Amino acid sequence: KWDGENLKPLWEYLRTIGLLRKWQPDNCVALFPSSRDEKDLKQLEQTFNETIVNTNGRSRPVPSDFDGRPVSFDGPVEERLREMLGGRDHSCPYDKEMQDATLLHFKEDYKEDFRLLTHFYGFIFFQDWKQDLW
Questions:
Q1: Lowest-confidence range among 19-28, 49-58, 93-102?
Q2: What gap in Å lies between CA 57 and CA 63, rounded to an integer?
Q3: Do 104 and 18 form a contact (C-beta atoms < 8 A)?
């Protein structure tokens, strides 16, 4: 509540007109492609999936793999993504539907397990490292 007002009608309205996604930072990595071009998102999701299922011949990364050996901020997409996974095996892509939406509404409701309370730098992955530094 803000200034004693009941804001529930506002939240309910936003949920009816906006695009609602259930992103769970403990289970997925938010993937932001370098452009609106669908090929960028497809490539990013392919890199994510290959990292998860070890198709490149490397074992699945764990956080301790990077102790004392951080990946450069401008390193290859695959290496930066491997470092960030932290045991998560799902992606939350910022896809065409989200890009085209007039309004994105990120619902907060702990009873329904809608919770985005996390550090953005441990959840959001940018394909283009320059976007990550803005």
A1: 49-58
A2: 18
A3: yes
SS3 77: helix
For 18, the token pair is 């906006």
CA distances from 132 to 14, 32, 84, 125, 129 (A): 28, 10, 13, 8, 5
CA atoms within 13 A on the CB side of 79: 10
> CB of 56 within 8 A of CB of 63?
no
Q: How many CB atoms are located within 10 Å of the residue 128 CB? A: 15
Does pLDDT of 21 surpass 60?
Answer: yes
Q: 40-88: per-residue pLDDT in tens?
A: 999 999 999 998 887 677 888 888 989 999 999 999 999 999 999 988 9
